[in-house]
Amino acid sequence: MGESQDYGDDLTIADDADLWRRIPPWHLVDDQNTGTARISKAASEDHPNGSPMSVTLAAESLAIDRGPAQELEGFCLASVTAGLARKLKQGIARRPLDENPAHAEVFGKKTNSVRKNFSKNAVWVIAPQNV
Amino acid sequence: MTSTLERKRQTPPAFLSDQLYSFLDSGSQASVAFESDTRTHVEFGPDAFFVFGSDLAQWQMQLIEKIALLGSLPENWNSYRSQPINIETAGFAICTLLNHLQHDDPMPSVVPTSGGGILVEWHVAGVDLEIDFRSPTWVEVSFEKDGDEFEVDDASMSQIGDFIARLREAR
Known about the structure:
The complex is a heterodimer of chains A (131) and B (171).
Chain A: E1 18-23, E2 28-31, E3 36-39, E4 53-57, H1 58-63, E5 76-81, H2 82-87, E6 91-94, E7 103-107, H3 112-121, E8 123-126
Chain B: H1 2-10, E1 16-23, E2 40-43, E3 48-52, H2 58-69, H3 87-100, E4 109-112, E5 118-124, E6 127-135, E7 138-145, E8 148-152, H4 157-170
Antiparallel strand pairs in B: 1-3, 2-3, 4-5, 5-6, 6-7, 7-8
Helix pairs in contact in B: 2-3
């Protein structure tokens, strides 16, 4: 999904750029192996219509005074880096939206391994206990 | 492997009635006929419900209710244009799990997926087992233990049963 010729990896987005993604409470699962809640790999998928996975470019969002708290109420917020996405053979493209000028898309095949890696390496911006 | 085969012998041929699920007709539950008092129905969102043709154990009802709860999710429940959960996929997941799980198996986490499917996950006893019901005809399984990882696309019923048996053996 999302490997259309319309997409090219935007290298002006640095490897250390943080990419935010909203996590619905449904996607928090009990991990008895670690004793913590983990993010299900189901949280890292392309859109059902085939368009690539949406994220928000954190620095660009903050630059327009749109902080984490302005993401949807009731959702957690997790972050991965653009560098991680590229290691997983994904690209990042800016796709500003009226409601979110810092919107971008992560394109590339979302294999099981890619989805798991996103979830395992994500860090909390808004953790479950703060929702 | 042995435990899986034994379990299949012990399992009734059909946990669910011949009519796996029924849609309410014009919002009238009265339109659905129950053949006996032992039938159980579980709502799946406002417009549909599952019909079960036998008495169910407590753990079975817990599992069914966890999955049926997903029937209430509206479109866009993940804020990224996700679809409502497909009832046929949910019914298939219930049927598959009831036929492979045993009463003392750990209860999995049940997670909706953006395309309307259901992901069932166990992270216990050093095992990460994920059964991803993408549709009523497509299941992907991922099993991880001690650094070894196995993935199966389009998993068969017997493969699903084998992975659940491996989870059981690890406990």
